[in-house]
Amino acid sequence: MSEATADVAATHASPELIEAAWRRVQLARHPQRPRTLDLVPLIFEGFFELHGDRVFGDDPAIVGGAALLSGHAVMVIGHQKGTDTESNIARNFGSPHPEGFRKAQRLMRLADKLGLPIVTFLDTAGAFPGPAAEERGQAEAIASSIKLMTGLQVPIVVIVLGEGGSGGALAIGIGDVVIALENSVYSVISPEGASSILWRSRDEAKTAAAAMRMTADDQLELGVVDAVIAEPGDGAHTDHAATAAALRAAIIDALRGLTGRGTADLLATRYARLRGMGAYLVTGSGSSRAPEAPSLRHRIGRILHLPGAPRRPRWSDIWPSADDDTEHERGA
Amino acid sequence: MPIKFPFSRRAAPSDAWTKCPSCEAQVFSRQLERSLRLCPSCGHHFRMSVGERIDMLLDSGSFEERDAGLESVDRLGFSDDRPYPDRLEAARIKTGLRDAVVWGVGSIEEQRVAIGIFDFRFMGGSMGSVVGEKLARCFETALAERIPAIVVSASGGARMQEGTLSLMQLGKTTAPLVRLDEAGVPFIAVLTDPTTGGVLASFASVGDVVLAEPKALIGFAGARVASDTVGEEMPEGFQTSEFLLAHGFVDAIVPRPELRATLGQLLRVLPVPAVDDGQDIDADRSWGPIGALSGFAERLGGAVSETIGIDVEGQGGDGNGAGPRGATEREQQEERT
Description:
The structure holds 2 protein chains of 2 kinds.
Chain A: H1 15-28, H2 36-43, E1 45-49, E2 62-69, E3 72-79, H3 85-90, H4 98-114, E4 118-124, H5 131-135, H6 138-151, E5 156-165, H7 166-170, E6 177-181, E7 185-187, H8 191-198, H9 205-211, H10 216-222, E8 227-229, H11 240-259, H12 263-275, E9 280-282, H13 296-303, H14 315-318
Chain B: E1 17-19, E2 26-28, H1 29-34, H2 50-57, E3 64-66, E4 70-72, H3 84-95, E5 101-108, E6 111-118, H4 129-145, E7 149-155, H5 163-183, E8 187-196, H6 197-200, E9 209-212, E10 218-219, H7 223-230, H8 241-246, E11 252-253, H9 256-269, H10 281-286, H11 288-301, H12 304-307, H13 327-336
Parallel strand pairs in B: 6-7, 7-8, 8-9, 8-10, 9-11
Antiparallel strand pairs in B: 1-2, 3-5, 5-6
């Protein structure tokens, strides 16, 4: 997708577009929306949940285990939100700590060892940002998960189920095929977070949701997801069984296309998929000039400390420090 | 699109004095420029421009910028209080840069490296498609040329204006590191103030060696986001280099005046293993430690300085193929350090 041109159509999103985007966010967060553990028994057979990262603990915000998919063993990993206040507190609202990502890594290594394809379900507002998570290396846990997934020698199918919240989602979201449910969303930061950082207000979450183009259809257009699966009725929350059936067919279809491939081909294609993410222009001209080498006269002049001899040319003459008034712009 | 380079002479030097945020001393700005941007009274590490980093870290005259022509585009049609292209243009004019990372090939103490350097002044050093692409190319060049990769980070995280495309740069910058692992090419991450969000949650955390400048802000979530979410104040010294060192996520905290020599030393003690043509590197490894040692002994018979990278009396411990630098350049380098 390199050298893509700017898409100027949506520079200023209309109120209708903003409402439509926000409706998707609300559907993605719907309390009755099927969660990973709701769908797993409907899609797979014989799921055996595995617990713990073998280092620190067991994070209930990420679940995983081995199961059968029409007779073939697979490894299933997903974020897990709760269904009511009590279970949401127990599951930390689906926001993992580092041990969650490390459990996922452990399961992925097991899958790699046994040659099991991996199916992951993304449904998190994001990795948990608390002090305990920082102490135990939240960023490192996400980074090493991403790195591990890019090199796994088994096929990976990723399902964006509800909220694809930033690095916490991507940590189990590197795949060969990425499939999104129609009303799922995927974003670099929550709309609330973008609102408070970019708009400096907590009230612009809807605008931010539209601006970030976080709906499943947007993600398909951007090439972040490969397919969008229609949801039954007014949304997945109205019919878990039908949602599961649609997903099951899509997963089997994706795995059928992947399992015949050789490992080298699989990894090369996965690499190319990631490598192609993003949009930029390659301008031929205007490379930054290196500072010119000083002439012999100048070099002698400098050694002899002659007045008027110019300083050695430096890159900092091209890119000096200015007074730093940069606002802090962060994402995920 | 013409790029303006507002360099050399400041159009309007707004302040001859800069207040140190750490000790509140008034520092003469010109003095900061001469002192690696360290506060003379408390040693506070001010942020550096990419140009100053290149001058400080790399052998004089060795740096060649690559892919300078890559430019961000507004794929989303993103606008907050102003459109993304306007922000980009403002950042280009302010910094003279095309985006937040400059990468190229150069040498550190005569050891050739592929190095990417962030400039925080360009939209908070945020990582969008161009930053991701440049770093991926930096790593791929390190792989192709079998030279170590170094990234000096200073970034608020992923660039929100590019939506999930910027999130995907986490994957794009991390995937090549797997190939570096397989090929036996080291990657050193240098974290400077600030390194947060998606940059820390990708390549920056998984360096073979991770260095940090003192008292840099390094963390996953912003402290404000964290305290908003958790509803409690963050502990003292939370998300600093020292905090990360104490919790095992950083190998060493290196004050800026020692950074160049530290990198030089690391490059010598973590050499890129030599690969003979037509010989599989894995076969080499499967011999185990004894085989590796005998291989070492064989190589000792040959040109030690070329394959192992041991500096023999300063005659260029250069295992990475960079030619010896001219005497004049070496003098210049000494002049600077």
